[in-house]
Amino acid sequence: MVREFLNRRFLAAASQTLRLLLMVSITFFGLLLITFLIGRIVPIDPVLAVVGDKASAETYEAARIAMGLHLPLWQQFFIYLGKVLQGDLGVSILTSRPVLEDIFRVFPATFELAITATVIGVLLGIPLGVFSAVHRGSIIDHVARVIGLLGYSLPIFWLGLIGLMVFYAQLDWLPGPGRIDVFYEDIVDPVTGMMLIDAVLAGEWEIFWNAVSHIILPASLLGYFSLAYISRMTRSFMLEQLRQEYILTARVKGVPEYKVVWGHALGNCAIPLITVIALSFGSLLEGSVLTETVFAWPGLGLYLTNSLLNADMNSVLGSTIVVGTIFLAVNLFSDFLYKVMDPRARG
Amino acid sequence: MKRLLILACLVVFGAGQMAHAATPKDYLVMGFAIDDIITLDPAEIFEFSGAEYAANTYDRLINYDVDNVSDIYGGIAESWDISEDGLTYTFNIRKGMTFASGNPISADDVVFSLQRVVALNKGPAFILTQFGFTPENMAESIKKVDDYTVQVMIDQPYAPTFFLYCLTSTAGSIIDKKLALSHEKDGDYGHAWLRTGYAGSGPYTLKKWKPSESLTLDRNDGYWGEKAKLKRVMIRHISEPATQRLLLEKGDIDIARNLERDDIEGLEANPEVKIVTRPKGGIYYLGLSQKNDYLKIPEVRQALKYLVDYKGMTDTFLKGRMTVHQAFLPNGFLGALTETPFSLNVEKAKELLKQAGLENGFTVTMDTRNAEPVPSMALAIQATFAQAGIKLEIIPGDGKQTLTKYRARNHDIYIGKWGPDYMDPHTNADTFARNPDNSDDAKFKPLAWRNAWDIPEMTKMADAAVLEKDTKKRADMYLELQREHQQVSPFVIMFQDIEVIAERKNVDGFILGPSFDSNFYQYTVKN
User: What is the predicted ipTM?
Assistant: First the structure.
């Protein structure tokens, strides 16, 4: 009996895993195929990025053949696919280095920024959303709405420059663009690639604080945008919950108001909020091109854009795989959290 | 909560303290858009910032004086002789020099470096292969005579400066043979390694290159010539001009390299900063495709040259960054034509259009790269064309995208920039005034070809000019060539560019040369 039950559980789990694997591989295949085709359809000659505008005809042709561009499109794709399956993402045209190495270099910068921004967005966005839902129509609510509206509509590019003007140029509270002061450059060995963690690992506290001071402004700006989104969503989830009868019941039976709001109501918003936060975190991980430009922050967004504009297909496809993996992982993780938090989803 | 507050205060306060730190005294910190660097191998480098890197980290056989381009002097080569027939060049290598690795520099390295460019056949290889070198003949045509003598044989008796100037370009950099070969893979002359590595002897050496992030150079303490003043040059990739300006004003960088007009005007009032300018060889022009039925009419080409408000643009948004220039050789080159016969003259243009039977105008497109100042120029041109009834449709695109179309001859009008590859006049004559084969599958595709301009006569004139050994006569030949070109060509040559940089007041001795590969760091000091 027990054995049969376990067997059934095992089979169910195995088939679920298999289905997941199948889904993931189809998703990746589609992702690669579409990106590959887009990369070949764009009216940019990828050989140009390698040999430049002035190369002779022989040089041009030699480079074209070396890049495999003389082969039929489907053949190029399958050659690429075969290499990817062996873990070889190729060499980037723009940096002359293996794409994987490039991604390991640029991604931690984006990751560090995204984590910090999301922490800021969650820590401030959720309370703001709760307050404005509870005190609907009050000044707090209006202020929150204005904050949200600005967060949606202000161009981050402009806001970034203004932030630099105020906190760096005028007030002198924060340092300028870059991940670290020039003086500290290349002292700490990159272990994780995240400046904050590497500095701690090396025990270089001075560098750690310098890196903190550098990340505050860009992370706050990105955090502001996720704050705007998270607080708006929290507000509407909360309004929905506060209308429910169980809230009324709780109040009637004398549960203190803070418990009603922060415990009962917010607790029931947790599940949709996880999706909201995961989505906003996921989109931050793709790298924010404009923020990275203004703050000279060498992350994935800049890398991907640069590669795309130069038809550097190995880098574009490599980054696509990374971004795709992140999105899948974030989605799977939020599904997993659902199950942990919601007894009904456990089945 | 309290603890959190204290932490927050600490962070903000601490950061405030650090923000005051100026750049280290023996460092030169530069804000520069260096995302165009795709390789560090001098046999492959063909990008603006890449060429500047090589100029500061590698030596060449010979150099030219940045203030007087016709003064050519020895680098790795102490002296050189040219045979009577103009075909054989013998270079005498300076003795006692070493590479940064400590390896001595000898004839072997010179032969290796030049042959390497030919054999690897990368983008800039044509600068050397145009003298007839091939992988097959290079063992004979570029050879070592003894440890300190190299003999090079070229295929035609060109004007000597043509070959010498080509040797001053990035492709002529001398590479440490021993070091490069120790990293060789599958007979690649160490290319795969050198793309991110360093094997030179220049005043600075490569410390680290992080693509699109930073480039760090350290002083070469074993340099054979005058040693660099500053210990380290730290180039930070900052693509946004406003950010560069901000960093410069705060003293976090010493030099800002990519500023827009607004930034420069804003900085002029700052006593802590000085603006430095230098005319460069880049030329802005319109290429009129002769495949277009309107543009192939001579009167139309002439009319368009009267429909650009050259002065209006250099007086306004191009002020201080470009000068009006209407011939294919930039000012400063041997034989450059400085006459500017064209100015905005709508009446005259209308008359010409009437002669062409097009008094009601016509519609054409213009492929326009979406990076300033090109779009602003395009808008100004659109407005003045309209005054004569010509409707100009601007097709914006990324630089590589518009270039791809241009190279395939699929444009009507292309607005672009052309930079010379070396300091000899042939570099531009070769592309603007030569087109040996106008067929679609031509082997040689200069700008004249891209605009489908078939010019057998002019090609002959340009060929004759590059063979003329008498400098005065040669200059006259180019002047004549440009005068004709100016009137009849499908190129509306408009401006010559000026490089503008901003330095902190205490920075001195940063050399801006006439070309992007002649900007030098070694004499820079900080007071």
Answer: 0.77
